[in-house]
C-alpha cells in the first residue's frame, strides 16, 4: 500500500538534492539577545508554570510510577520518535546516521517488543539524535537571535523554527490510522515528565538556585547547543558549562 507524501514534508524533502551544496555557517560567538526584556517575561512565565504544575506533576509521576514502567515508557517514546530522526538525517545527507537509526528502529521494534526495550543499545546501536534545527544548521542557516519559547524554554530563531517543524517530521503521524497517529506526540509528552523527574536536581539548580536563572539558562543553552552542533568544538569563548555539567 502506498501512502501519499505528507504535504508539510514534501517541500522539505525536495531540498534534499541541494543539501550537498550547502555548508554550515561559521560557529557563532557571544550572545545575541536583542529581545531580552521580552525573553525574560517568557522565562518568568515558564518558571511559574514549572513551579505550579510541571515540576510537581513530574515528581508525582516519578514517585507514583515504578521505575521499570517509566523506563519502558522512555524506551517506547525514544523508539517511536526514530522515524523523525531518520527523516532529518536524510535531509542532512547523513546516510550513515540514517541507516544506523533505521537499524536501531527495526531491532527495537521487533526484538524489543514494539520499542518497549532498548535492545539495540546492547549491540552498539545507540541513538544518534538530531532535529530540524540541526538540519537548518547543516543547510547553512545561522543561529539567529536568542529566544525563549513558552513551555519549551531556551532556543534560538533557527531552533525555534526547528521545534515547530519537528511536530510534522514523523511519518508515523501521517501513515498510522486515528487515533494511533497521535501516539508519538502523546509518548513524547509523557517522556518529558519522566525527563523532568530524572534531571530534576539539575533543572532546579538552573531555574531556582542561581543568582540570575535567566542568564544561567541562556549561557547553558547556547554553549551546549553550539557544542552539540560543532561536534564538540564550538570555537566559542563562552564558559563551557556543558562539559562541566556532564563530565
Structure description:
With 247 residues, the chain is mainly alpha-helical. It has a domain at 30-49 and 57-198. 58% of the residues lie in helices and 3% in strands. The protein is globular and about 50 Å long. The N and C termini lie far apart (48 Å). Residues 1-10 and 237-247 have low confidence and may be disordered.
Describe the structure using short key phrases.
247 residues; mainly alpha; two-stranded antiparallel ribbon; 2 strands; globular; disordered C terminus
In the sheet with the most strands, the strands line up as 1-2
By DSSP, the count of extended strands is 2
Q: Mean pLDDT score, rounded? A: 87
> Unreliable stretches, pLDDT < 50, 5 or more residues?
1-10, 237-247
Q: Radius of gyration, rounded?
A: 19 Å
- Supply the number of helical segments: 12
Quaternary structure annotation: single chain
- Helical percentage: 55-70%
The chain-level structural class is mainly alpha
How would you characterize the largest beta sheet?
2 strands, antiparallel
Tell me briefly what this model is.
This protein has 247 residues and is mainly α. It has helices spanning 10-14, 36-64, 67-80, 82-91, 95-110, 132-138, 157-165, 172-175, 183-198, 200-209, 213-229, 241-246; strands at 146-149, 153-156.
Topology summary:
Layout: H1 10-14, H2 36-64, H3 67-80, H4 82-91, H5 95-110, H6 132-138, E1 146-149, E2 153-156, H7 157-165, H8 172-175, H9 183-198, H10 200-209, H11 213-229, H12 241-246
Antiparallel strand pairs: 1-2
Helix pairs in contact: 2-9, 3-9, 4-5, 6-7, 10-11
Amino acid at each position: 500500500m502506498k501512502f501519499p507524501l505528507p504535504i508539510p514534508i514534501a517541500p522539505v524533502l525536495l531540498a534534499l538534492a541541494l543539501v550537498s551544496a550547502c555548508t554550515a555557517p561559521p560557529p557563532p560567538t557571544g550572545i545575541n539577545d536583542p529581545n531580552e526584556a521580552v525573553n525574560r517575561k517568557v522565562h518568568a512565565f515558564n518558571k511559574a508554570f514549572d513551579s505550579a504544575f510541571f515540576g510537581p506533576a513530574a515528581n508525582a509521576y516519578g514517585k507514583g510510577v515504578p521505575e521499570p514502567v517509566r523506563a519502558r515508557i522512555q524506551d517506547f517514546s525514544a523508539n517511536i520518535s526514530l522515524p523523525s530522526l531518520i527523516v532529518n538525517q536524510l535531509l542532512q545527507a547523513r546516510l550513515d546516521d540514517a541507516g544506523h537509526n533505521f537499524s536501531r528502529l527495526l531491532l527495537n521494534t521487533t526484538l524489543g517488543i514494539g520499542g518497549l526495550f532498548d535492545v539495540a543499545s546492547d549491540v552498539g546501536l545507540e541513538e544518534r539524535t538530531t532535529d530540524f534545527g540541526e538540519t537548518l544548521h547543516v543547510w547553512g542557516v545561522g543561529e539567529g537571535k536568542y529566544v525563549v519559547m513558552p513551555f519549551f524554554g531556551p532556543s534560538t530563531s533557527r531552533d525555534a523554527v526547528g521545534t515547530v517543524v519537528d511536530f510534522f517530521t514523523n511519518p508515523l503521524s501521517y501513515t498510522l490510522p486515528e487515533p494511533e497517529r497521535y501516539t508519538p506526540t502523546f509518548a513524547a509528552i509523557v517522556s518529558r515528565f519522566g525527563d523532568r523527574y530524572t534531571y530534576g536536581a539539575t533543572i532546579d539548580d538552573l531555574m531556582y538556585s542561581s543568582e540570575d536563572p535567566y542568564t544561567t539558562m541562556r549561557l547553558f543553552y547556547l554553549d551546549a547547543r553550539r557544542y552539540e552542533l560543532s561536534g564538540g568544538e564550538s570555537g566559542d569563548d563562552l564558559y563551557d558549562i556543558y562539559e562541566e555539567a556532564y563530565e
